[in-house]
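Section 3.1 - Work completed
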Amino acid sequence: MLFSSSNPTRTAAGAGATLAIAIAALFALAGPAATESAGHAEAPAHEAAAPEPAPVRQIFESPKTGTEIERFCSNIADAARDRRYVLQTKELLALQQEVDKRIKVLEEKRAEYEDWLKRREEFLAQAEDGVVKIYGGMRPDAAAERLAELDATLAAGILMKLDARKAGVILNEMERKAAAMLTGVMASAARRNDPT
């Protein structure tokens, strides 16, 4: 319903307008039928004296109704605009928070990658060329024994800088578990992609 039932004046006005429209529609429909029957038989005297119904157009052009609607629309225009701005602001803030979260995740990944790269560079720098030459000149069984006693990252760094054939012979002389661990460290250090 267009008007609230809490205001009896508006309800009565709305009902009156609906009743007037219905009566006008009945007169409009009865008008052509009355003119057709007038040609066949004469109409009674009381029907001939009835005034013509008002055109439907006059009922719809009530100045009171038009001004009420215009006033209602103009009264709520500012509130509707303000509400729309509030909703848009909320949406923009939610999007900004989502972008900030993603930037934070990307910054964490970047820092993690830089840390991994720094550790890799340090790992490779641990095996100095002089130490590599010393282990390269040793017998494979003696080198395997000494490398098994060293820190895994240092031993892997030395093996990576040795000639591949010499490193393979040294790994062959080591115990299986120690060789597997050093091979794992070397593989992760040689990997180009981020291991995380």
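Second construct:
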Amino acid sequence: MKTLPSKNLLLVIFVICLLVVIALVIFLGHVPRQDIEQSSQVSSSILYFAYGSNLSSNNMYSRCGSNITALGPAKLPNYEFTFDRRGSANIVPHTGQYVWGLLWNIDSDCLRALDRYEGYPTLYGRQTVTVEWENNEVSALVYIESSKEAGGQPNYSYLKDKVIPGAKEHNLPPAWINKLENYLLYK
């Protein structure tokens, strides 16, 4: 004759299984899978404000690949567009002035590629600024060179072949494009 497990043993096994199921629900089922995927996408999305050669889609795609999106023209208030001693674009704080540029949505791989290209943190620093984009204020990263490097004249080919075409490509305001083109007169 077969013996059945005691009722106490069955009760212990049942309680253990119930505790395992509860633990799995708490630890694995707490966050729906869709929320996990969305949160990882949001955390890898970075807004970046470009005002120099990175206005150009070709330049950005060559540096970052195709997993980036140009969101549109954006305006950085209380900064002035200048050039460093090498003739590259830079910006410096200046109350009442503004800089037009392009807002990009980039990922962390692109940020690392831009860090290398911009010489971060040795040549250019990286800051978070507030830009005006589509009637909203948004935070974006921007590369800014040390003020001790300011005061140079624009590099003619850099401005003519990279910055101005990028500004035109992304429909920055005509008055801003005219301002950029006026720098070409002082070559």
